[in-house]
From TrEMBL:
Organism of origin: Sesamum latifolium
Keywords assigned: Glycoprotein, Membrane, Transmembrane, Transmembrane helix
Pfam family, one: WAK_assoc
Record-given protein name: Wall-associated receptor kinase C-terminal domain-containing protein
Superkingdom: Eukaryota
Record domain Wall-associated receptor kinase C-terminal: where: 35-131
Record field: transmembrane: 152-173
Length: 194
């Protein structure tokens, strides 16, 4: 079942519906879901708080709990559990901070992204008619784009390569200015006189 978060919660307009599937032993006086009957195995649906006293979890193969809109529960007996499920359920959205409120008042829809499902850190996005923004639909000036971070290794390699090329060019220019490649040892006498 859906676990509420600090920002998403069920409303008071919902009721909890419990399904017990493929029960091998069951009380004879309780009506079952006819379309789910499989031979001697019966299935049941109850609104939370009105489940008859019985050892349902140990007598049935599986249990499913789902929220449904309260008004759909009223027609559960007449219309069946399928109609109640099709009605859905309501969630209340409560913002943790005012980022979302600023986004929504500008005409956008809030969005959060997290690199880790257990992390409380999140990236906020405001989804607008003209695309994704960082704060609200009117925030354009100085907005930082959500591109991937720069590759510092590649940037460092390019800078080092550039410095190496410049050093080689400077070396050859200096060599040309100091005599065009003549060695300084050519002026040392090669004979020794006494």
């Amino acid at each position: 079942m859906f676990e509420p978060t600090p920002s998403l919660n069920y409303t008071k307009d919902n009721k909890i519906l419990r399904f017990y599937y493929n029960c091998t032993v069951y009380p004879p006086s309780v009506p079952n879901i006819k379309c789910l009957q499989r031979g001697a195995k019966h299935s049941y649906a109850f609104v939370d708080g009105s489940v008859p006293e019985f050892d349902w979890p140990h007598r049935c193969e599986s249990t499913v709990t789902v929220p449904v809109i309260e008004k759909a529960v009223d027609g559960l007996v007449a219309n069946g559990s399928g109609d109640a499920l099709r009605e859905g359920f309501k969630l209340a959205w409560k913002t943790v901070d005012n980022e979302c409120q600023l986004c929504e008042t500008s005409g956008g829809f809030c969005g959060y992204s997290s690199n880790n499902s257990t992390s409380v850190d999140h990236n906020f996005f405001c989804f607008c008619s003209d695309g994704q923004h960082l704060k609200n639909c009117h925030y354009h000036i100085g907005e930082i784009s959500r591109k991937s971070p720069p590759n510092y290794l590649a940037i460092g390699a390019v800078i080092c390569g550039g410095l190496l090329v410049i050093s080689i060019v400077v070396f050859f220019i200096n060599k040309k200015k100091t005599g065009g490649g003549k060695s300084g040892f050519s002026q040392i006498p090669n004979t020794y006189e006494k």
